[in-house]
Design brief:
Elements: H1 6-12, H2 25-37, H3 49-58, H4 63-75, H5 80-87, H6 103-110, H7 114-122, E1 132-133, H8 134-144, H9 156-169, E2 174-175, E3 182-184, H10 187-196, E4 201-203, E5 218-222, E6 226-227, E7 243-247, E8 259-260, H11 262-268, E9 277-279, E10 300-302, E11 323-325, E12 347-349, E13 371-372, E14 374-376, H12 382-390, E15 395-401, E16 422-429, H13 440-445, E17 454-458, E18 479-483, E19 502-506, E20 513-515, E21 524-528, E22 535-537, E23 550-554, E24 572-576, E25 585-587, E26 593-597, E27 606-608, E28 615-619, E29 640-644, H14 654-657, H15 660-663, E30 667-671, E31 699-703, E32 722-726, E33 749-753, E34 772-776, E35 802-806, E36 825-829, E37 850-854, E38 874-878, E39 898-902, E40 916-920, E41 942-946, E42 953-954, E43 966-970, E44 977-978, E45 990-994, E46 1013-1017, H16 1020-1023, H17 1034-1037, E47 1042-1046
Helix pairs in contact: 2-3, 2-4, 3-5, 4-6, 7-9, 8-9
Protein name: NB-ARC domain-containing protein
Domain R13L1/DRL21-like LRR repeat region: 387-508
InterPro entries: Apaf_helical, LRR_dom_sf, LRR_R13L1-DRL21, P-loop_NTPase, WH-like_DNA-bd_sf, WHD_DRP
Amino acid sequence: MTTRNERVASIMTTCGTYRLKELTNDDCLSLFTWHALGTSDFEGHPSLRGIGEEIARMCKGLPLAAKTLGGLLRTKGNHQEEWEDVLKSKIWDLPEERSSILPALRLSYHYLPFHLKHCFSYCALFPNDYEFEKDELVLLWMAEGFVQQTTREKQMKDIGTEYFRDLQSRSFFQQSTSDRARYVMHDLINDLAQYVSRETCFNSDGDKLYARVEKLRHFSFLRHQYDISKRFEILHQMESLRTFMALPIHTSPWVASSYLSNNVLQELLPRLVRLRVLSLSGYCIEELPHQIGGLIHLRYFNLSYTRIKSLSDSVGSLFSMQTLILHGCKNLVKLPQAIENLINLHVLDLTDTENLTEMPMHLGNLKNLQILSKFFVQKDMRPNFIDLKSLLYLRKEISIRGLENVIGTRDAGEYILKDKQGIDSLDMQWSPDFLDVDALPVFSMLQPHENLKKIRVAFYGGTQFSSWFGGSSLANIVDINLSNCRNVMSLPALGGLPSLKKLSIEGMDGVKELSFKPFPVLEVLQFQNMLKWEYWYHPYEDGEFPSLHELVIHNCPNLNQKLPRYLPSLVKLIVKGCPNLVDSVLNLPSLHELNIEDCKNMVPVSLIGITSLVTMRIRGLPYLKCFPDGFQQFPGAPKHLLISNCSGLRLLRQKVTECENVASIEYVKVNGSSPPLSLAENGKNLVPKSKHFLNSLERLHIESCPKLVSFLKIGFSSTLRHLQLRDCPVLTNLPIWIMSQFTSCLLEDLEIEECPSLTRFPNGRLPPTLKRLKLQDCASLCSLPEGLMQADNNKYASYLEHLEIIGCPSLKNFPEGKLPTSLKVLRIWDCWQLKPLFDRMLPDNASLEYVDILKYSNLESLPESLQNLMCLVELNINSCKDLECFPEIGLPLPNLRTLNICSCDKLKGLPPNLLSLEIWYCKELKDPVPKWNLHTLTSLREFSIAGGPDMVSFPHGCLLLPTLVSIYMASLNNLKSLTVSLQNLLSLEELEVVECPKLRNLPREGLPATLGRLCIRNCSLLENRCSRDKGEYWPLITHIPCIEIVATDI
């Protein structure tokens, strides 16, 4: 990693740090010149050489300084006077104590035009390394009034985009390395933004608040999982606030799970009447207060990925609104009719709102609307559809749903989209059950402008497409998707489209024959669920698809013709579920991935010219007996071979096994073969003892082979690192070559699962290279292998790090010796005859971090040597019925953070020193809670208890630990009240109470102000008292961001 923070480097490093040196003067000058003049020298500008050399020298070898100053001077042209002004600026001479900002960066900001200064300083709201999208930032600038539209010839958003590009060209923004569609600011640039905007912008996750609070105008913060009202108390002093922004703006749906206090929504935000930007993206908000309509200056409102169901009519009062983002609001079912009043609206983002099936009337009033990602045609509402024609400035993408609701041909008299040259993506959808063959007039009126790049047509009921589909209207089309147009009998003339790169055809049930003209630039061709397709003609022989990279044919059960023979650029070929597809001779010189599944009649007769195959997957080809001709000619490939349910495949040919390509295979997976290839020892299927046989194999995975009994005696090379055997019910013997003294085996990972007939390992010792061993559901396995344990005399070393033994009820003993000192993870589940761990097995393990024990019936006590496990972090003990106690001295382990104890009926005591403690259903733990000495757990953050003691009230004084963050209580049958002492838990964030039938009281003084989540589930006496808006306790808990009251099941 790269960092300017030496402390970060010292924490992350494992091999020392390397200090990057500054650029040499020559390199710095070259970089500066490139950004200033677009060349590497001053040959075309000799008068600027001396000045440029001086400026480059003052950059002191810092690349960012050279880039930003170069970008600045590029905007000033090649005027010597302008360059001299920069060189002689007094900013170079400012003392360093005035600011930690590099002089070169201060100069770059100083010479920015006024409008760009505003735009850049606003970016101080973004924390270091924050990735943002160009369009989202431009919309924010527009809302704040930073983008000035001087003429109607240019849209405001286009002007804002020019601003963005200006700042990017000066190196204030740079593309993210992880996502090329996003941008970041260098941390020094971010420092500059923070400095120049310190009086007006405040990111609550930053270090300092420079300005007087009442002067601040813009506020941002990173969402926490639970955002309590206390976090925003400072905003009560910011009545002139213009920006309230939860970050990140571009929330992903799988992380949209934050909760905001209702007090913030109901009380704070309505007071901020000067807000222009309000972003609540990613919060689990279900409804907005009516008072939101009072924010009359609001221009940008982001509710993406919230749980909002509808917007109130008060939104119609926000006449200044420019941007309304409802992206990913999957619970949204309707928009208010009053939205027609938002005549300044530019963006209405309704992407991924699948439950939204109603649109307000008169959207045509929104004359400035440019982004309308979704439009739903209302049934029996003609004006709703015609509204689209009035939206002259639509651009980017639009999805038009409910086209079956267009009323006959009355609505089909005029073009709706043809004059909208800004639309580059069009999605046209009818209802899935729509089969009206008279849909052609509606299709015709949706002819797009020829600038269109992408089109999708779904559930169209007509028998043919309109004449525009395939003509000049699609001259610039790049991507076509035709989905479930079941009545269409033939496809339009798509071959020859000069820009088409991707064509996807799915569910076209009426199509029986296909024939295409050549596609000059097509790269991806996909056919799926073409149930009646039978014939694919290839009239152009080898010139049909010169640029095709990927061909997918899936679930086309009646297709019985051959595939195109020659595909010179094909990289990926996937054919699945085509049982009638016949033998093919394929010439695929560029192929990397071949995947053929469930095509019983497809046996590749020959594979010609393949030189770069990496992965080969074959599944469900019962008539395949051997690999095709040409397989032995693949030089150095394939690397990965995966074979499944090929019952007729018996062996790799003699000539194949002796060639270099088989020697190059690194990964083999065999699933459902009987026997698997030539690995079974049944006399007829022995693999020749070739020196080339799988000499590069690293991973072997055999699964679901019902007749596999044993393996060949011949071993694999020393390259084999991972062996996995799963679901081989009659396997009785493991390959002898996994034991170290018989071969040069260097196995690192051995996994054996669901092999119920396996009784023992071969004689010998496991290789010392083995790091992971997993044995699961091997019911007859009665002994563990030698080499698993570390010999007492250290004669044989073991470096095992991960050991799992699960569901092996016949095991009784560990081998002699002690567990390897390298062991980090130990899991023993459901081995009820296995004798317990002894002190001698864990004498000095300095590596063990995780111990997980489940249904270990013979375990009565934990070994005293457990105290030596100084690296132990987590200990889980579950359903050990005979476990009575911990070691007498407890568990004084400095790194133990989590202890989970569940269903240990006889356990009578607890250890100290934990971050997390879980005690479930330990019936013999009868001492009252005060005697558990929980006050000694001074670092405890999580406490979970279920069943057990007769607790009447909670918490007891002994549990008033200021470090507690989470409390979970369940099945405490006598618990009646939560006491006022809860208020003393000043770090508590989560409280969950489940199935406590007698619990009826919360403390009248309320719950801790820090509480972010309260869950009460199946507590019948308390549920009604906490019900929303009605219960007597509701005023005490309404401030909590996440409240879950789940009624008792009846």
